[in-house]
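Appendix B: a complete holo record

For completeness, this appendix reproduces one full record from the ligand-bound portion of the collection. The bound molecule is flavin-adenine dinucleotide. The inputs are the chain sequence and the ligand SMILES; the output is the full three-dimensional arrangement of the complex, encoded as structure tokens. No fields have been trimmed.
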Amino acid sequence: MNQHVVIVGGGPVGAAFALALADSGLEVTVLEARQVTAPLASRAIALSESSHLILERLGVWNQLVANAAPIRSIHISENGRFGRTLLTAEQFNHPTLGYVVDYVHLGAVLEQALDQKLTQRVQLRYGATVQSLQPDAEGCTVNFEQAGESLSIRAQLTVVADGGRSINNIPGLNRETRDYGQSALVARVRTELPHNFMAFERFTKNGPVALLPWNADEMALVWVETPEKAEQLRQLIDVRFLSDLHQHFGDRLGKFTSVAHRNLFPLKMASVRPATAQHLAVIGNAAQTLHPIAGQGFNLGLRDAWELAQSIAITPHAELGGVAMLAQYSRSRRKDTGGGMLFTDFLVQTFSKDIPMLGGLRGAGLAALDMLVPAKQYLMRKMSFGAQK
Ligand SMILES: Cc1cc2nc3c(=O)[nH]c(=O)nc-3n(C[C@H](O)[C@H](O)[C@H](O)COP(=O)(O)OP(=O)(O)OC[C@H]3O[C@@H](n4cnc5c(N)ncnc54)[C@H](O)[C@@H]3O)c2cc1C
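The structure of the chain with flavin-adenine dinucleotide bound, as generated:
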């Protein structure tokens, strides 16, 4: 047996998981396909309170928060309907409802922290692309390519955190995918009126549009449309894009005055079930890829990473990746991941359909929710900690 744990993918979830294991005394190798110098596309990630707590335990929160924007309130509305809901940090008795960080900064902070823990036992290999996995009764063989060489490594436990991007044929696991027929256009925008660290989620018949505070002056835009329309929007000249956005979003922030870093992401829901096989576990986006409507994907994936590290911590080294350990891990995650997927899909299905009666109910629902502080507190608890708490 070469290694105790091999992690496929050093994105934010894989890196956080490696960091959680770094002081465990286990031999851990992370295989990351990217070259160390490869640039990543900047985009906003809204972090929940559960992520804040986990990232604090991993010792990276102070570096992260130095470049994060707090979310002090969330305004939820629907285009063309009367209902709206305002969630505020005060209703939750908390200083913020979450934080917005850059995906690039998040990855860099986790990688730097991991770099400081690298030893003979904990290794991170860049430019290492995993090609296939062969789990068996004793462990799992991971075949990968690095610098033109075909290599393999054996692990007692292999953890797939490749974002669901590459390893589709894992023996014993089924991947289900549903294309939403939507793309998210992300960008950074400036507005005429100050955002005062309020996030906006506005539902429209084509899909939601979200604006998150990025820093004191800028906001991160996530505009969901059909793939064709999103591509057209990406190509529009700035002045036209800004006026289309104003028309689509409404007047709440005045005019949009600048836009930068436009990028597109096709949207789908995907899941791997079960998320464990003998000597193998799948975590993060590789286990469940969600629509960004509720900003839950990374938050859920980070809880996968943290809970798996906790399961490992209570397992004798000889039983790592065994049936009992993986069954305990699966049980600990079932409610949270299932709930997160159902909730997100419910929002997509309910708020992206142009059915007149449904529209009336949605408006009434948002208006009613606005008056019910306990219901808002319940919703925020679920958004902050998932279905486990
Ligand atoms: C528009 C948009 C907005 C979002 N907003 C939010 C939000 O506000 N809040 C939130 O919580 N989530 C959000 N998400 C979801 C979030 O981005 C993902 O959940 C998160 O990035 C998942 O991290 P991951 O590490 O699992 O996967 P990834 O970030 O995809 O990382 C996977 C890593 O694996 C590596 N890799 C891939 N294949 C291989 C291979 N064969 N061998 C080795 N390495 C490999 C890749 O190079 C990459 O580094 C959003 C997503 C989108 C698209």
